[in-house]
Structure formats: structure tokens, C-alpha cells
Amino acid sequence: MKKYIGELKQHPEALFILGYMLFPLLALVVAVLGFFMVLGGYKLFGLILLLVPTQIFIFAAMWAIKNRKLLIEKK
């Protein structure tokens, strides 16, 4: 797994897709799902979805964007 992540850090195109497309989309989908769960009466599970996986996807997107900028500045 570390080998693949290390290779991923070398490709700015892959980091672009992860940071600007995939992770924000996943964060949005999980946040909407959590919001609808709260509205549907499942408050605890909805709040957990809003707080935990959404934040993980947001921080993963910020990580990918930062690493992409650093990689482009190096070249």
C-alpha cells in the first residue's frame, strides 16, 4: 500500500483528480446522506456521518492539493 501511495505522490494528474474531484465529491455525498439521516430521525448516525467521514474526505482533498502544488513547484 505504501508503494502505491508513494507512486501516487509523483503524478500531479492523479493528485488533481483526487484533490479537486473525487474527495470533494465524496465529502458532499456523505454530508448530504448524513443530513438526510438527521432529518429522517437517525440523529446519531447522521451526526457521525457529518462529522467523521466528511472531515476525513475534506482533509484528504487538502492533502492532495498541497502535495500537487509542491510537486508542480519542484518541476
Key descriptive features of the protein:
mainly alpha; elongated; transmembrane; 0% strand; 75 residues; Integral_mb_put
Describe the structure.
- The chain crosses the membrane at residues 12-38, 44-65.
- Keywords: Membrane, Transmembrane, Transmembrane helix.
- By secondary structure, the chain is mainly alpha-helical.
- It has one domain (2-74).
- Helix content is 89%, strand content 0%.
- The model has no long low-confidence stretch (mean pLDDT 92).
- The longest helix is centred in the middle third of the chain and has 29 residues, at 12-40.
- The relative contact order is 0.17.
Residues in helices, as a percent range: over 70%
**What structural category arises from helix and sheet content?**
mainly alpha
Low-confidence stretches: none
In this structure, how is the largest beta sheet organized?
none
Spatial separation of the terminal alpha carbons: 26 Å
The count of β-strands is 0
Helix tally?
A: 4
Strand content: under 5%
Morphology call: elongated
The structural domain count equals: 1
Mean pLDDT: 92
What is the H-and-E element order? HHHH
Radius of gyration: 15 Å
Topology:
Elements: H1 2-8, H2 12-40, H3 43-51, H4 53-74
Task: Write a short abstract of this structure.
The chain has 75 residues and is mainly alpha-helical.
